Design the sequence.
């Protein structure tokens, strides 16, 4: 069983479209994250949710909206996609407290 | 503020040679330190972690890292590199608030 799974793995879309990326973890973790990895491999945290509540919201355009329907899911919705949104988006989860994060396989988003 | 510096953007080693990847962190309290590896097209896999105790930690795939508080470093080492170790390596620092901050990564190339 995959611990942290994201869908889709690849997403190609046109500018201006709205798209969503889904993430699910079966580890029973309380905290979930979205990271953006740019073309230079830099990983930047976007959002963090703990027990369905937003606890980190870094400087991210409000076109990006996370949704956590339950503790095991954290979806990322992006409105009005722009070329600069092209990146790999990683979902992650952690147990809480002093512990490591587990990452999904990533979603490569390409905006054309 | 927490930050992680990986001074080497890219390293090339011969198969069978030893490896050391550098990581320096900035954090006011006791740091929780991690090394992750990212193979092409894959997510991040945890290699090892340091929370407390013995400053030399062993990880998977024959990797180890040493925490040196006086130098604010957490360098990753492997005595003999295999071709399959070619990947991107990320050092990260975490805190009790479940926040993880990553370095910019070191790309490792292994030549036969």
Sequence:
């Amino acid at each position: 069983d995959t611990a942290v799974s994201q869908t889709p793995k690849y997403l190609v879309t046109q500018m201006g479209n709205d798209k969503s990326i889904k993430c699910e973890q079966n580890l029973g973790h309380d905290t979930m994250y979205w990271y953006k990895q740019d073309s230079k491999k830099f990983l930047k945290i976007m959002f963090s949710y703990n027990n369905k509540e937003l606890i980190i919201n870094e400087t991210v355009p409000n076109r990006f909206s996370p949704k956590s329907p339950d503790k095991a899911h954290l979806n990322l919705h992006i409105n009005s996609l722009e070329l600069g949104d092209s990146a790999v988006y990683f979902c992650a989860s952690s147990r809480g407290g002093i512990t490591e994060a587990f990452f999904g396989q990533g979603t490569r988003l390409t905006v054309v | 503020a927490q930050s992680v510096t990986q001074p080497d953007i890219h390293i090339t080693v011969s198969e069978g040679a030893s490896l050391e990847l550098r990581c320096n962190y900035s954090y006011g309290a006791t740091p929780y330190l991690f090394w992750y590896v990212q193979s092409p097209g894959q997510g991040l896999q945890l290699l090892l972690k340091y929370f407390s105790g013995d400053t030399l930690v062993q990880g998977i795939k024959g990797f180890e890292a040493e925490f040196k508080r006086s130098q604010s470093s957490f360098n990753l080492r492997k005595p003999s590199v295999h071709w399959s170790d070619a990947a991107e390596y990320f050092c990260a620092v975490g805190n009790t608030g479940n926040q993880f901050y990553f370095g910019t990564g070191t790309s490792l190339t292994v030549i036969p």
Observations:
- The mean pLDDT of chain B is 93.
- Chain B touches chain A at residues 32, 34, 36, 38, 41-46, 49, 51, 88, 90, 94, 96-102, 104-105, 107 (CB under 8 Å).
